[in-house]
Predict the 3D structure of the following.
Amino acid sequence: MEQYLELGKVNNTHGLKGEVKFEMWCDGIEYVKQLKTVFLDKNGTKPLTLVSARPQKNIAILKFAEIPSINEAEELKGKVIYCNRDDVPIDDGAYYLADIIGCYVVDIDTEEEYGKVVDVQNYGSCDIYDIESWGKHTLIPAIPDVIKEIDIEYQVIRIKPMKGLFDED
């Protein structure tokens, strides 16, 4: 499991005092507000102190202690911001989407293996897991009728496949 998770991306500057417009890839502004430190790299070696976070339409406006002006904020444009998974507690049984990638997908009844999750997408109604097996991709909806059990520790997702989902042509 990765220790540092993608939180979102800086899209642009906001004003003259070093604030940035931030596209959130997490659950929302309340998640971001819990953080005191974020990182400019996936190894956690370039920390930034989060001074404030506020919503603005579908993005957030962030202010960092180390970024006093628009000049420094310009350098953050396009950068992915990371958080340490230990800095925000999550509920028992909850998981990060990053932990889904790499899990094996098996039939809950037969234990037949369908492949491995290589991506998680979302088009609005639910997450979609991209399952790859021998170069073939199958998209499955992450809904309770299909996803029956997710075991992050053992990297296994047990499913009840919908009719026709994995049937050969």
The longest helix spans residues 29-33. DSSP finds three helices and twelve strands in the chain. The mean pLDDT is 92.
